[in-house]
């Protein structure tokens, strides 16, 4: 593994974070796929290009982009989580002929080959750096002249029903986690588009464009799966995990979440509102 500077994120994503992600991997990749596809459209991928996939997780976006850039293109997926990358590597073994590599490392300091990629891409993987300006400078060095950056990130908590409402409900029974500082690393840290633009500009990018994208987020294929997801993942799951709730209280919270989820049942799963930013820029 390369040098790590985001120690807290490394500990989380190589510990409890990876355990949760791997538990829900298939569902999460399916739920996040439309968001990744929207960011790929902003990247305007072409056959033969070299793409750097930041926070590639279990490889879902890497595999999809490989199909878009064949036959001469190549993908390097980078993630800070060794357990998650092991899943990606296992899945890649069945893709004969695909030029995909995975590397475990911290993209803020990872020693990428200079000027070797046409595109830097990420699906919800760039909001976790201690020093985002340094991280994006490092990624930009990996881009060729006039290379492209495209990523998707979450808008603020109040714009994401699937995060805010379950957290409000759970907070009626257990303490609400202390709010994070606006610039602290975390999934919602890029909610302010002006901050995102400042970061990218300081990192040396130009032509920064930030557009909103709203889409339903599937919290479960059915109510049972939705309750399991909401009690394990996101801020609601964190509030439960950090509390001193006994099993009886946890069971009661789960029943309350079940009643809550019933109002969001559709023919295609339990869906709640979500809001993201689609961000694109060029190497200056």
Lay out the secondary structure.
Layout: H1 7-13, H2 16-23, H3 25-43, E1 50-54, H4 60-69, E2 74-79, H5 82-92, E3 100-104, E4 117-123, H6 132-141, E5 143-154, H7 161-170, H8 193-202, E6 205-220, H9 223-232, H10 234-242, H11 247-262, E7 265-266, E8 269-283
Parallel strand pairs: 1-2, 1-4, 2-3, 4-5
Antiparallel strand pairs: 5-8, 6-8, 7-8
How would you sum up this structure in a few lines?
The protein is an alpha/beta fold. The chain has helices spanning 7-13, 16-23, 25-43, 60-69, 82-92, 132-141, 161-170, 193-202, 223-232, 234-242, 247-262; strands spanning 50-54, 74-79, 100-104, 117-123, 143-154, 205-220, 265-266, 269-283. It is globular, with a radius of gyration of 19 Å.
Report on the biggest sheet: 8 strands, mixed
CATH architecture tag: 3-Layer(aba) Sandwich
Under the CATH scheme, which class?
Alpha Beta
| CATH T-level fold name | Rossmann fold
Tally the helices: what do you get?
11
Structural class: alpha/beta
Our estimate of the beta-strand percent is 15-25%
Domain tally: 1
Count of DSSP strands: 8
SSE order, as H and E? HHHEHEHEEHEHHEHHHEE
Oligomer: single chain
* Fourth-level CATH superfamily: Vaccinia Virus protein VP39
Q: Over the alpha carbons, how many angstroms does the gyration radius reach? A: 19 Å
Mean pLDDT: 94
Categorize the overall geometry.
globular
Distance between the termini: 30 Å
How much helicity do the residues have?
Answer: 40-55%
């Amino acid at each position: 593994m390369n040098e790590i500077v985001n120690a807290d994120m490394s500990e989380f994503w190589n510990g409890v974070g990876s355990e949760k992600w791997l538990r829900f991997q298939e569902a999460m990749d399916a739920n996040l796929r439309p968001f990744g596809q929207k960011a790929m459209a902003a990247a305007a991928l072409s056959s033969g290009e070299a793409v750097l996939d930041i926070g590639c997780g279990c490889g879902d976006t890497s595999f999809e982009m490989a199909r878009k850039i064949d036959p001469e293109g190549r993908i390097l997926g980078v993630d800070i989580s060794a357990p998650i990358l092991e899943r990606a590597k296992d899945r890649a073994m069945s893709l004969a002929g695909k030029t995909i590599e995975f590397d475990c490392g911290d993209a803020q300091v990872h020693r990428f080959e200079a000027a070797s990629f046409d595109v830097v891409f990420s699906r919800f993987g760039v909001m976790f750096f201690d020093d985002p300006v340094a991280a994006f400078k490092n990624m930009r060095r990996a881009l060729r002249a006039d290379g492209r950056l495209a990523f998707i990130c979450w808008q603020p908590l109040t714009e994401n029903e699937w995060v805010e409402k379950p957290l409000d409900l759970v907070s009626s029974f257990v303490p609400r986690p202390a709010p994070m500082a606006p610039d602290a690393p975390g999934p919602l840290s890029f909610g302010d588009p002006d901050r995102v633009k400042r970061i990218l500009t300081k990192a040396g990018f130009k032509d920064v464009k930030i557009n909103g994208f709203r889409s339903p987020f599937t919290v479960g294929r059915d109510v049972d799966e939705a309750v399991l997801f909401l009690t394990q993942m996101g801020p609601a799951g964190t509030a439960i995990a950090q509390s001193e709730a006994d099993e009886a209280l946890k069971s009661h919270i789960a029943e309350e979440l079940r009643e809550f989820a019933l109002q969001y049942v559709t023919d295609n799963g339990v869906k709640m509102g979500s809001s993201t930013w689609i961000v694109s820029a060029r190497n200056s």
